[in-house]
Amino acid sequence: MKKNLSLAFYALLLTMCTSSTPVEPSKPIEGLSCRATTANAVACSYTCPDGETVVDFDEDPSLSATKGDLDSLFCGVIPATFTPAPVIPTNSPTPAETATLEATATAASTISPTVGTPSSPLFTGQVTMCDTGANLISFRMVTPAPDLTGKTLSVVIADQESTCQVNPTNTSLMTCTIPPGVTFPAQVVVSLDGAVVNDFIHEGIGCTQITTPVVTTTP
After folding, report:
1. pLDDT tens digits for 6-59?
2. Cα distance between residue 59 and residue 34, in whole Å
3. Cβ atoms 82, 166 nearer than 8 A
4. What are phi and psi of 2, to 5 degrees?
5. What are phi and psi of 38, to 5 degrees?
6. Is 193 exposed, middle or buried (0-12, 13-18, 19+ CB in 10 A)?
7. Is residue 83 part of a domain?
8. How far is CA 27 from CA 197, 205, 212, in A?
């Protein structure tokens, strides 16, 4: 009987030690700490920028999310967005004669870019985060990322418009919404000022629903 009690106490002590062993997250994120729960599993907690809100996870969220994703999804931090400036058409000068008007029109039609002409790609095709629970997906942009100031960006996923913004924490990522009802694989078409720069199929690799967190507030 004493031997059985000793074995049970030893097993309990071993479990307590294992569950409190700190481990490094897959990617270092400020405010994120993890600990081993079993030999092959971890549990993590993330402290929001307000220092009060703590979010607990049953797995390592850094495998599929950035600090900006965690702040946006669970801490109510609204990331900065860019607002493309409207394209103002240039007024053509008033021609003095009919012959001048015809020459001007011909020259303009020759040098004007054609809408839909392929240009340099914006996305590499790599997806760094795909959360079907929050309907968010992050695409890796080419390096160096082009200046989007004053450009009209359009991202269409499975023939539906998506809302996108540059990730404020990692500016090499573009985080977009997954339109309602979209399932993967799905076609992704990216346009800048009407010209298609990306057209590819995302197979849905890495698209999972991040475990619903339990939000607590430290006293």
Report:
1. 544 454 544 454 446 888 888 899 999 998 887 678 888 999 988 888 888 888
2. 9
3. yes
4. -65, -35
5. -140, -170
6. middle
7. no
8. 30, 19, 20
In the chain the first and final C-alpha atoms are separated, in Å, by 43
Q: Which residue has the higher pLDDT, 37 or 153?
A: 153
Strands (E), the chain: 22-23, 32-38, 41-47, 53-57, 123-131, 136-141, 153-157, 160-162, 164-166, 173-177, 186-192, 195-202, 207-208, 214-217
Among 42, 63, 84, give the residue marking a domain's end. Answer: 63
The whole domain housing 134 covers 123-208
Lookup: tokens for 46: 């993330």
Residue 159 tokens, joined? 């023939």
CATH number at residue 182: 2.60.40
- The answer to whether residues 129 and 198 belong to one domain is yes
Contact (Cβ atoms closer than 8 angstroms) between residue 72 and residue 55? no
Q: Give the torsion through C-alpha atoms of 179, 148, 128, 154, to 10 deg.
A: 20
- CA-to-CA distance for 188 and 192, rounded, in angstroms? 14
Cα angle vertex 103, ends 97, 109, to 5°? 135
| Residue 20 to residue 13: CA distance in whole angstroms | 11
Write down which residue in 63, 82, 108 finishes a domain: 63
Q: How far is the C-alpha of 146 from the C-alpha of 161, rounded, in Å?
A: 21
> Considering the entire predicted model, what is its pTM?
0.46
Structure token pair of residue 125: 């095709």
Same domain, 129 and 204: yes
